[in-house]
Amino acid sequence: MRLIPGFQLRQIGNEYLAVPSGAAASRFNGLMMLNETGAFLFRFMQEDTDRATLLHRLEEEYEAPEAQLRADLESFLSQMREAGLLEEAV
User: Fold this and answer.
1) Per residue in 49-65, pLDDT tens?
2) What is the pLDDT at residue 60?
3) What is the pTM of this model?
């Protein structure tokens, strides 16, 4: 899985924005605000990856229970899927 191509991550102060350009701008109108964890995941989802790898990266970066990290990951993926920004292998 990966995010659709054409998004750039921008940081303005303590805020993170996913900004579409090119073809991505025609699929997604607007900006997406991300929290720090969302921005962290966003960086790794520019290339193909999988849930296990993303969870492992979260475990390396954040000191939190695995169940909480797994829930955060699933929430992020669900939001990206609902927004039409997630490409998943069938």
Assistant:
1) 999 999 999 999 999 99
2) 96
3) 0.87
How many Cα atoms within 13 Å fall on the side-chain side of residue 3?
26
- What is the number of structural domains in the chain? 1
Does residue 62 sit within a domain? Answer: yes
Residue appearing with tokens 């999988």:
50
Counting every residue, how long is the chain?
90
- Domain membership flag for residue 47: yes
Q: E strands within the chain?
A: 2-3, 7-12, 15-20, 32-34, 86-87
| Residue 53, domain extent | 2-83
Between the alpha carbon of residue 17 and those of residues 1, 40, 89, 90, the distances in Å are 21, 12, 26, 28
Residue 25 located in a structural domain: yes
Task: Give the separation between CA 47 and CA 20, rounded to whole angstroms.
Answer: 16
How high is the pLDDT of residue 90? 62
On whether residue 88 sits in a domain, the answer given is: no
